[in-house]
């Protein structure tokens, strides 16, 4: 009986729509090849990103990691494994951005004291998928605004060209997002990351 209680539940794409608590979601194992999120207490399953999507994600992530190494006082943790916790919703909601950037994450704490629920990012990044664009353009725009620590949400659109994506920045401005569009090849800077310049072109 004790062994049965300690066994992890395993879920896959066939469990799409399953009702779960946050603890059940965090404790479970999942079939590889898919992405899993908990939205309003419901398991959301998406196909794993295709390679062009992954290339854009890796490119942006590396730019941010290099900046973090040189400016640990500004941001000190960049990850593609974050599970966010959205406050003030009736049911547990834990979206998983392609990239999450943290400021002042207490990495000196013992590992067992670190829990995604206790930390919220400064910046999140998504790379739009052609078969699931509404998730990033509609759902996540609302969810990320509900997390007060998130000051900017970057949404890259590689659908026309993954080598030359466009960028839409949602910048927190009072009670709404301010939208900034950067065309392929343009340069984006932000006071959030002093000295950071991103040329929106994977060849740069």
Task: Summarize the structure in words.
With 204 residues, the chain is α+β, with helices and mostly antiparallel strands. It has four helices and twelve strands. The strands form four sheets. Strands 5-6-7-8-9-10 form a six-stranded mixed sheet, with helices on both faces. β9 and β10 form a beta hairpin. It is globular. The protein starts with a helix and ends in a 5-residue tail after the last strand.
Task: Compile the SSE list and pairings.
Blueprint: H1 2-6, E1 10-11, H2 22-27, E2 29-30, E3 34-39, E4 42-47, H3 51-70, E5 77-79, E6 99-102, E7 123-127, H4 133-145, E8 152-157, E9 166-173, E10 176-182, E11 187-189, E12 197-199
Parallel strand pairs: 1-2, 7-8
Antiparallel strand pairs: 3-4, 5-6, 6-7, 8-9, 9-10, 11-12
Give the radius of gyration. 18 Å
Task: Name the assembly state.
Answer: single chain
Biggest sheet character: 6 strands, mixed
With strands numbered from the N-terminus, the spatial order across the biggest sheet is 5-6-7-8-9-10
Order of helices and strands: HEHEEEHEEEHEEEEE
Secondary structure class reads alpha+beta
Uncertain residue ranges: 1-5
Summarize the entry for a quick read.
The protein has 204 residues and is of the alpha+beta class. The chain is built from four helices and twelve strands, in the order H-E-H-E-E-E-H-E-E-E-H-E-E-E-E-E. The chain has helices at 2-6, 22-27, 51-70, 133-145; strands at 10-11, 29-30, 34-39, 42-47, 77-79, 99-102, 123-127, 152-157, 166-173, 176-182, 187-189, 197-199.
């Amino acid at each position: 009986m004790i062994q049965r209680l300690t066994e992890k539940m395993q879920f896959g794409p066939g469990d799409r729509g399953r009702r779960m608590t946050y603890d059940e979601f965090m404790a479970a194992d999942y079939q590889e090849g898919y992405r899993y999120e908990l939205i309003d207490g419901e398991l959301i399953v998406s196909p794993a990103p295709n390679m062009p999507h992954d290339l854009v994600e890796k490119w942006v992530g590396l730019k941010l990691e290099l900046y973090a190494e040189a400016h640990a006082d500004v941001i000190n943790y960049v990850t593609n494994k974050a599970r966010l916790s959205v406050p003030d919703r009736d049911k547990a909601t834990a979206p998983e951005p392609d990239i999450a950037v943290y400021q002042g994450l207490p990495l000196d704490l013992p590992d067992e004291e670190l829990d995604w629920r206790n930390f919220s990012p400064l910046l999140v990044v998504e790379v739009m998928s052609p078969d699931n664009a509404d998730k990033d353009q509609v759902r996540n725009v609302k969810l990320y605004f509900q997390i007060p620590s998130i000051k900017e949400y970057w949404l890259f659109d590689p659908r026309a060209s993954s080598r030359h994506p466009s960028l839409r920045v949602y910048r927190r401005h009072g009670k709404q997002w301010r939208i900034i569009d950067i065309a392929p090849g343009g340069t984006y800077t932000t006071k959030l990351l002093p000295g950071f310049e991103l040329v929106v072109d994977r060849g740069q």
